[in-house]
Amino acid sequence: MIDYSKKITLHRELYPLNNLDFSIESDRGRIISAPSLRRLQKKTQVFPLELNAAVRSRLTHSLEVAQNARYIAKTILKKSNSKFGLDELRDAFISTAEMTSLLHDIGNPPFGHFAEVALNDWMSKTGVKILDELVDVCPENEAFKSMLVRDICNFDGNAQAIRVVTKLQRLNLSYTQIASILKYTRAAYEKKPEKSEPQSYLKKKPGYYYSEKEIVEKISDSLQMKKGCRFPLTYIMEAADDISYLNADIEDAVDKGILTFEDVYTLIKKECEKMGETYLFDLVEKFYKKAKSNEDEPYQFNLFLTLTRASLTHALVTHVSEVYLDNHEAIFNGEFNYALLEFDKESKYTKAVQVLQNISIANIYNNKDIRTLELKGYKILTGLLDSYTPLLELESEQFSKLVNNERIDCYISTRLIQRLSAKHIVAYKNSVEKLQVENSEKYKLEEWYYRSRLIIDYITGMTDDFALEEYRTLSAIK
């Protein structure tokens, strides 16, 4: 039975409120005031180290996603015809979807998604080797070690978002708000399922780490979420994100001079013809002619994009809202194993999306200048990890002394620890304090795991320009 009062609740870790409206507004305030949200203004969306303020950052992208989510949520409410008890939860439903979308990239590292590759590559090749040299494990602890290694080598921005709001920023959001951020339901230490498995899409990426296993389970139990299942409002956030990408990356590519208005028109026309797509083709043809005949040249693309974006966004919002309600029970239970925008493969909207995605992949994401900037980001991030390696090479007893301001012989480590965030160090200490010391081998494995998380937390929390400056500083480059 669909009953949103079981999903949209007052539960939160500390100081729960007794009024839902106050609770929702409290979440909004905490999110908008969060330092990690502000840092998104200087994190890459597509173009690393971008100086043009008109080109999207993670923050401006997230604002657009939040607006799309608000539009989808209001459309769902309108089409639901006062069913499912949503009338009483209207404001909470809309606000949660909107704020989840504002938060959705909060765990992303500097330099875009390519940074995830850099972090995981370094950890699997260098980090794991350091652990092997530090801790010899007996056969009974091999499986535990393998699990931790899988986890630490599977950094993902979605999983980091859960860590940021619960452990690093301690936003104390409602369980409803946190659950909405959990885009994927697989732990980073779990293996990726086969496509034929029931939850293959829901688990296609890591959604949380071993370090957040307990809080995720606690939230899931509180909100009656079955294992491996999603929170219903997460589907709205995902659809809003997918819709925002369609025109945004093309617009930014034109601002950057990678594409011209004529390029965009020609590429869309050719891709539509190639795929036999007519809906987007007719839309683009109509607005291209209108822009050409009604505007001066510098403003033609602006008019074309504005009209195309408005028409396409409205159509896609209506479409995903209908998919949501047509599959409402499966979505409410978190069992719907698809993205809303990808569910109906034969839909004209799905085909239109595919056209725009194909153009972006071929002409924007694979652009030489972007690839060059990604390589630069790779070098910066792996260089930072190399610089902080001395902290990972310490024995657990030495590192314990270091974080407790006791003297150790490693000169460089005593300098490096001072550069880390105090909040991140507290998060590390809180995690280590809970470990069982009786099994020294297992303790050393877990301590090193949380120490690695500490370094990763610090580096992935950096903005693009701060990461570059820190790399230059530690590499003695002017």
Low-confidence stretches: none
Based on CA atoms alone, the radius of gyration comes out at: 24 Å
Secondary structure category: mainly alpha
Can you count the beta strands?
Answer: 2
Strand order of the largest sheet: 1-2
How is the biggest beta sheet arranged? 2 strands, parallel
| Termini separation | 63 Å
**Helix content range:** 55-70%
What is the assembly state of the chains in this entry? Answer: single chain
What is the overall pLDDT average? 94
Fold and architecture overview:
- The chain has 478 residues and is mainly α.
- Helices cover 64% and strands 1% of the residues.
- It is built from 22 helices and 2 strands.
- It has a two-stranded parallel sheet with strand order 1-2.
- The protein is globular and about 75 Å long.
- The protein starts with 19 loop residues before the first helix and ends with a helix.
Short description:
By secondary structure, the protein is mainly alpha-helical. It has 22 helices and 2 strands.
Keywords for this structure?
478 residues; two-stranded parallel sheet; 22 helices; 1% strand; globular
